[in-house]
Amino acid sequence: MMRIGKWVLTMLACTLLLSACNTVEGIGKDVKKAGEAIERAGK
């Protein structure tokens, strides 16, 4: 039973880490696009 619990916790941790990376990447793209828009407005 403990093996199943450890496996579930490991899978949950991996899922959270992968989704966090995806979220950070998305935020980075949004910030980049916002910066580009501000730069175009300044010209």
Describe the structure.
- This protein is an all-alpha fold.
- It is built from 1 helix and no strands.
- The protein has one helix spanning 2-42.
- It is rod-shaped, with a radius of gyration of 19 Å.
- It starts with a helix and ends with a helix.
- The relative contact order is 0.08.
- The model has no long low-confidence stretch (mean pLDDT 81).
Labels describing this entry:
43 residues, mainly alpha, 0% strand
Radius of gyration: 19 Å
How would a textbook summarize the main sheet?
none
Q: Which residues form runs of ≥5 with pLDDT under 50?
A: none
Structural class determined from secondary elements? mainly alpha
| Beta-strand percent range | under 5%
Q: What order do the helices and strands follow? A: H
Total helices: the number is 1
> Average pLDDT across residues?
81
Question: Which geometry do the CA atoms define?
Answer: rod-shaped
Cα-to-Cα separation, first versus last residue: 64 Å
The helicity comes to over 70%
| Count of strand segments | 0
Task: Compose a concise summary of this entry.
This protein has 43 residues and is mostly helical.
What's the topology here?
Elements: H1 2-42
